[in-house]
């Protein structure tokens, strides 16, 4: 009974469901079509190589609950949106998506899809938004997309699409956004799209402004004059294409225009007619950015550029061939944050009105032909971060007012004719970090010690000047330095040892100076050093062999005639086996020894002379006996018959006494006594002197003076 009741209830439920399906507002066909959405989704999932967030797409749950799938409110079984941007999906886009007949939004941007855009997308007649941007899609844009009559936004940017824009896109009368940027599209803009004024009612009513993105392609031809009919157009990005001709002055009718980005094309202006668009743009009071760099603009810049919108923040005219002077009233553009005029042919002087641009953060005027001095008013640009005046014809001194630019990150003044010394104030800009370039001028004097204050500086160029003095040791305090170029100056002295602190140094060029001393070995320990030029200085001594010195292509040391050693590839003479310090020590040793020996010899000589003097003092000299002749040893030998025993009178402990006979000068014979002393016997000499004194006291006999001779042995 219970089983029958359950069966009856089931039958009534099925019957009620049947009536619900055929009730007003429903149809059997809508349910049957809804049943087709699931197979379409599964087919889409099956073509993915990496399903990312779609791992849960399976029969265990209803497809309307699958990630990225949105079903409708009026048709809860029907898929109305696929919102899968940044889902990390890869693979090909399945043609089965064309079966999702009620789909309004297809957002598959920022994934990794490859292959072609399936033409079956053209079957999605209710599609309003198509976003396939930032993938790797190739091939051409399907013309069938033109059949999606309700499309309001198409974004196919940042892919690898090729070919021309299908003319069929011009039939999309509801289109308010077309993004085709950063592809490889080519050809001209179709005439059907050139009639852009037809988009205006939808632009204003739906978004209030619109963007045209077709940059980074290969489009060519002229910019359509009819672009001026898009009164609600706010941003135009047509750069990095091959557009030619002039910018039509009709752009001046775009009163809502905030940005015109037309850099890196072949657009040109050679005369007043070609520059007419500048005057026309003065009507665009909301203009904030004008990017016209890397084109073919020539001739003189119109004065009317000073009358552009007061809201203008970015003005890029770099890499053209614009000549003449800068308009004096360019300082009227008081909200400018970036002014790029580099790589042109501007002449004349810098207008002092630039000092009124107090919001300026980037000022590039390098690679022109501007002369004169830097206006002191430049010191008012206290918000400036990047300032380059390189490769011009500026003269005079570098103004100390540049020290007011306390937010500078980069300063380039190279390749001009600046004279005088480097102002110390520059080295007090502690924000300088990217580059300080004052090379190729006529600067004199020394590099100030204050350079040590630039703790964050990465590149310092001061080469090709007339700088003198020593390299400041404080340069070693700039510990983030990677590049130091000081070549072609008159610097002297040695390489400061504090440079050993520059652990990130990659390039060091000190060539063509007057530096001397030994090449510091600490340069070998700078592991990041990849180029070292010390040529044409006066360095001496041994060249290291490790670190950067082990790579002959990374160093240059020629022009230093006193160097030796190094790796064989340098072809330098061999150094002595001893190190210079050891050689110096060995040279000192013989000098010291020689002096010591000399002093010792002098001391011994002094002692000898002193000893001999004492002996002479203690021994009476025969010459002191005035009036008595000197008797030689040979005379005494003859007088004593060679000291024969027959003449011996007596002997004692101190010596022996002999008698003798000698003839005087008158020829008379005279008897004498000769005493032969034994000097080796202590007291012999003293005893003899005492004996002489005793004899001298005898009045009747004077033996020591007359008849008494002394022979010592």
From TrEMBL:
InterPro entries listed in its UniProt record: Kinase-like_dom_sf, Leu-rich_rpt, Leu-rich_rpt_typical-subtyp, LRR_dom_sf, LRR_N_plant-typ, LRR_R13L4/SHOC2-like, Plant_receptor-like_S/T_kinase, Prot_kinase_dom
Keywords, alphabetical: ATP-binding, Cell membrane, Glycoprotein, Kinase, Leucine-rich repeat, Membrane, Nucleotide-binding, Receptor, Repeat, Serine/threonine-protein kinase, Signal, Transferase, Transmembrane, Transmembrane helix
Protein's name according to its UniProt entry: non-specific serine/threonine protein kinase
Membrane-spanning ranges: 586-606
Ranges in a coiled coil: none
Protein topology in the membrane: Single-pass membrane protein; Single-pass type I membrane protein
Localization terms from the record: Cell membrane; Membrane
Signal peptide location: 1-20
Domain Protein kinase positions: 643-713
Pfam families (UniProt xref): LRR_1, LRR_14, LRR_8, LRRNT_2, PK_Tyr_Ser-Thr
EC code(s) of this entry: 2.7.11.1
Chain residues that bind ATP: 675
Organism in which the protein naturally occurs: Oryza sativa subsp. indica (Rice)
Repeat is among the record's keywords: yes
Keyword Ligase: no
A GO-annotated cellular component: plasma membrane
GO molecular function, one term: ATP binding
